[in-house]
Design goal:
It is a single chain. The protein is of the alpha/beta class and about 260 residues long. It folds into two domains: about 5-165, 3-Layer(aba) Sandwich (Dna Topoisomerase Vi A Subunit, Chain: A, domain 2); about 205-255. Helices cover about 50% and strands about 10% of the residues. It contains eleven helices and five strands, in the order βαβααβαβαβαααααα. The chain has helices at about 10-15, 45-60, 65-70, 90-105, 140-145, 155-170, 170-180, 190-200, 210-220, 225-235, 245-255, and strands at about 5-10, 25-30, 85, 115-120, 150. Strand 3 (about 85), helix 4 and strand 4 (about 115-120) form a beta-alpha-beta unit.
């Protein structure tokens, strides 16, 4: 076992990471905590059982595959690594996954806690419409590692704990208050715009539609009537959400069920 662990935000980043010369073991975080049910204690078996049931129902996954690709990987967090590097991006999808990882790390009561570092790019030099690390090659990922990696401290973990608790409680008023009262974001400046984007999802209009429903409905009504067209338009405007097509389908299916769109 290496003394270093890298937690990557998805398989697309793994492709580039394998081209780097960066030392360490790798774990790919294959979850979408920004959608579906969450409970506070991410270390509990009940948390992962609930996630498994929801993921399998929503994304045509099997419990066995989910267990092997996600739950079995969590065992790495109990290994005696001296250093853990978290590779996550600026969007809501990534930021909530990052919060989940930080909660797992902070709930480990191991006294010889590892040094935890964050690599979280909001943009990349020379890339005009940066969408994420999955677009980057090994050399570009090494550049991020050498230039933007920061060590997370106690305050960052306190901030993450507050954000995690607020995300789970789904109380728009409390999130609004926290966003306006928090003046210092330390090593987690991407958390604020991500939580602001989440806040918009909690606020619904008279028809019971949140921001994402309304946005997708507007795209449909402006003439995009295939899923692929709708995805592309949404991604161009709303990359802060970091949603893949399967996640957008949750919202599109809701609109279809209500006969507001016909795909």
């Amino acid at each position: 076992m290496s003394a270093i662990l890298h937690v990557l935000n998805g398989d697309s980043t793994l492709n580039g990471f394998e081209q780097t010369g960066i030392d360490g073991d790798v774990m790919v975080w294959r979850e979408v905590l920004s959608e579906g049910p969450l409970t506070e204690n991410i270390e509990s078996a009940a948390f992962w059982q609930e996630r498994s049931a929801w993921i399998c129902k929503t994304f045509n996954e099997t419990p066995e595959r989910y267990h092997d690709s996600m739950v079995a990987q969590l065992e790495k967090f109990s290994q005696p690594y001296e250093e853990i590097n978290l590779w996550f991006e600026f969007d809501l999808h990534c930021q909530v996954n990052l919060l989940g990882v930080m909660m797992l790390l902070s709930q480990q009561t191991n006294l010889s806690a590892p040094a935890v570092y964050l690599i979280c790019p909001a943009d990349y030099p020379g890339v005009s419409d940066f969408r994420g690390m999955g677009e980057l090659n090994g050399e570009q990922l090494e550049y991020l590692y050498d230039n933007i990696r920061v060590r997370l401290g106690e305050y960052d973990f306190e901030l993450a704990t507050e954000a995690w608790d607020l995300f789970i409680c789904c109380n728009a008023e409390r999130i609004q208050q926290w966003l306006s009262e928090t003046k210092f974001w330390a090593n987690m400046p991407c958390l604020k715009p991500a939580m602001e984007a989440h806040l918009k999802r909690l606020q619904v209009n008279a028809d019971g539609l949140n921001y994402i429903h309304q946005k997708l409905l507007g795209i449909y009504n402006s003439g995009a009537h295939s899923r692929s067209e709708i995805y592309t338009t949404f991604w161009a405007d709303e990359k802060i959400y970091g949603m893949g097509d399967e996640e957008l389908d949750i919202y599109l299916d809701h609109l279809s069920t209500r006969n507001l769109i016909n795909l």
